[in-house]
Design brief:
This is Glycosyltransferase RgtA/B/C/D-like domain-containing protein. GO terms for molecular function: alpha-1,6-mannosyltransferase activity; GPI mannosyltransferase activity. InterPro entries: PIG-V/Gpi18 (IPR007315). The chain has one domain. The two termini are 38 Å apart. The chain is globular and about 75 Å long. By secondary structure, it is mostly helical. The protein is built from 18 helices and no strands. 68% of the residues lie in helices and 0% in strands.
C-alpha cells in the first residue's frame, strides 16, 4: 500500500471547507442583511443556514427518535452517531455534531479513495479523483449534516477491504453501509465478484469459498435489522420503502425518467423557468454518470463498475414520475458513486482540455449551488 500524501489531502479538504464557509459568510450576510446595516450576524446563525431539508430530519431523529410515517425513509446509523454526543453537549450541539461527523467522514473517505484510485493509474489519477470529488457542484452535501460523507467512507472502506482480501472487515463495513442508506445492501454484488476473482489464487475448496462468503451475511443483516425496527414501530417491515410514495417515487422502467425529463425540459416547461433549470441539473448529472459508467467499463476494476451500475440502475428504477423533475435528487445521489470520479480522472489525464473545463466549471457551480442551499431555496 503506497502512503497517501497526507498534507496534500488535508490541504484539499481544508481549502474546500474554507470555500464553503466563505460562500456562507458573504452570501448569507449580503443577501439577508439590510443595505449599509451594522447588525452583527451571530456565528450560530451562519451555521444554522446549513440546517435544511434532510439535515433537519436527521437531527430531529437524533434528538427525539423516529416519528411515523415519513421519518422511516431515513436510515438510522447517521442519527445514531449524532445522538450520544449531542445529548451530552446539549440541544444546541446537534447541528455542529452532525456537520462534524459528516466532514470527518469525508476526510477519512478521501484517504481510502486515494488508495483505491492509485491502483487504477498512479498518484496523478488518485489526486485528480479527490480533486474532482471535492469540487463537484453538489459536494457541499459533504459539508452539511447529510449521509453522503458517511456512506462514501463506509463504501470505500468496504472496497479497500475487498481489495486487500480482508473479507470480515469488508462484511462489517458493508453492514454499517446498509444501516446508512437503503442502497448499501447492494454491496453484496461487488463482494461476490471479488470473492469469485480470487479463486485462481486460492486452493479452490468448499471450505475456502464458505470462509470467504460467510462475512457477506453481515451486509443484508444491516438492512434486516432496520426492517425489524420498522416492523416493531409501524407494523410494516418495509415501511422505509412504502413511504417513498410521499416523494412521488415509484417503480418504473429505466427509460421512463429519461423520457419524461426530456419532455419537461424541451416541451412542457417554459425556457428559463425554475423547473427547466432544476430538471436540467438532475438530468445532466444522471446522464453524465451513465456515460462515465460506459467509458469506465474497461478502465476501472470490474467490481467498481458493477457498484456504479447498480447505483445508477436503482435511481433510474425509482424516479419521481409525478413531479416536474422525475430525476429529483440525482445530482446528490451521484456524489457517492466514486468509480465515476476515478474514470473522470483517467479521462482528464487523457484529455487535458476536459480537465481544464472541469476545474473551471465545477467550482463556480459548487459556489452557486451551495449558496442556493444556504439560502434555503429549493435545491434537491
Amino acid at each position: 500500500m503506497k502512503r497517501a500524501p497526507v498534507w496534500d489531502i488535508f490541504g484539499l479538504f481544508f481549502v474546500t471547507r474554507l470555500l464553503l464557509i466563505l460562500v456562507t459568510y458573504f452570501g448569507y450576510i449580503i443577501l439577508t442583511q439590510d443595505k449599509y446595516g451594522t447588525t452583527m450576524v451571530p456565528i450560530q446563525t451562519l451555521f444554522g443556514a446549513w440546517n435544511h431539508w434532510d439535515a433537519l430530519i436527521y437531527l430531529r431523529i437524533a434528538h427525539s427518535g423516529y416519528q411515523p410515517p415519513y421519518d422511516f425513509a431515513f436510515f438510522p446509523l447517521f442519527p445514531t452517531l449524532i445522538s450520544p454526543f449531542a445529548h451530552l453537549l446539549g440541544d444546541n450541539s446537534y447541528l455542529i455534531i452532525g456537520m462534524l461527523i459528516s466532514n470527518l467522514a469525508l476526510l477519512g473517505a478521501l484517504f481510502l479513495l486515494y488508495q483505491l484510485a492509485i491502483e487504477m493509474g498512479g498518484s496523478v489519477v488518485a489526486r485528480r479523483t479527490l480533486l474532482y470529488l471535492c469540487i463537484f457542484p453538489t459536494a457541499f452535501f459533504f459539508f452539511a449534516a447529510y449521509t453522503e460523507s458517511l456512506f462514501l467512507l463506509l463504501t470505500t472502506g468496504t472496497f479497500l477491504a475487498l481489495r486487500r482480501e480482508r473479507w470480515w472487515i469488508a462484511g462489517l463495513l458493508g453492514f454499517l453501509a446498509a444501516l446508512t442508506r437503503n442502497i448499501g445492501v447492494l454491496l453484496i454484488l461487488p463482494f461476490l465478484y471479488e470473492v469469485w476473482v480470487t479463486r485462481p489464487r486460492e486452493h479452490f475448496s468448499r471450505q475456502t469459498v464458505l470462509l470467504h462468503l460467510l462475512p457477506i451475511v453481515f451486509i443484508p443483516l444491516g438492512t434486516l435489522l432496520y426492517c425489524l425496527f420498522c416492523w416493531q414501530m409501524t407494523g410494516n417491515i418495509l415501511e422505509f420503502a412504502t413511504v417513498q410514495s410521499h416523494w412521488s417515487r415509484e417503480m418504473a422502467w429505466p427509460w421512463e425518467a429519461i423520457w419524461q425529463s426530456l419532455f419537461e425540459m424541451f416541451w412542457n416547461q417554459p425556457f428559463g423557468s425554475f423547473n427547466q433549470v432544476h430538471t436540467l441539473l438532475d438530468f445532466s448529472a444522471t446522464i453524465g454518470f451513465l456515460i462515465l459508467a460506459v467509458l469506465g467499463w474497461k478502465k476501472v476494476r470490474r467490481s467498481y463498475t458493477i457498484w456504479l451500475a447498480v447505483q445508477l440502475l436503482t435511481i433510474l428504477l425509482s424516479p419521481s414520475l409525478n413531479q416536474h423533475d422525475p430525476m429529483i435528487s440525482n445530482q446528490r445521489f451521484v456524489l457517492v458513486m466514486f468509480p465515476a470520479f476515478i474514470t473522470m480522472a483517467l479521462l482528464g489525464i487523457q484529455h487535458p482540455r476536459f480537465h481544464q473545463a472541469l476545474v473551471w466549471i465545477f467550482p463556480g457551480l459548487l459556489a452557486t449551488l451551495s449558496l442556493i442551499f444556504v439560502m434555503n431555496l429549493w435545491m434537491v
